[in-house]
Specification:
Helices cover about 65% and strands about 5% of the residues. The protein contains six helices and two strands, in the order E-H-H-H-H-H-H-E.
């Protein structure tokens, strides 16, 4: 008697939507590092001096790092300072714990928003 063919198990679908709370958490973590090491925020670090309203304000931008490699020494010196490392670690841990508690506490309203607002719009975004 021939063996019965088993149905092949389908691979689970991946959720390809962008989660806004994860983007916010990543921005907060990047802000902690860029404020400590470069004296600027992540947007000013990435964009640099692009014109009116986008001045670096004395911080180090990505463009400045590319044009003046000596600034890497300044950033490295700040990164090797134990006080800066401890400050980054403590702030990062607090931000991480805060986001975990906030996500857990706001689970029901977030699910409600995702189900009633973002899903019907089909933007590929979740809260």
């Amino acid at each position: 008697m021939a063996r019965k063919r088993m149905a092949r198990r389908k691979a689970p679908r991946r959720d390809r939507s962008v989660k806004l709370l994860n983007v916010a958490e990543a921005f907060v973590q990047a802000n902690i590092v860029t404020e400590t090491l470069m004296d600027t925020n992540p947007i000013e670090f990435a964009l640099g001096d692009l014109g009116v309203g986008f001045s670096s304000g004395g911080g180090i931008s990505l463009k400045e790092l590319a044009t003046s490699p000596r600034l890497l020494g300044v950033v490295g010196q700040r990164a090797m300072d134990p006080n800066n490392i401890i400050g980054i670690a403590v702030k990062s841990a607090i931000a991480n714990v805060g986001f975990k508690f906030a996500k857990r506490a706001l689970r029901r309203p977030v699910n409600l928003m995702n189900r009633n607002v973002f899903k019907p719009l089909a933007l590929g975004v979740k809260l």
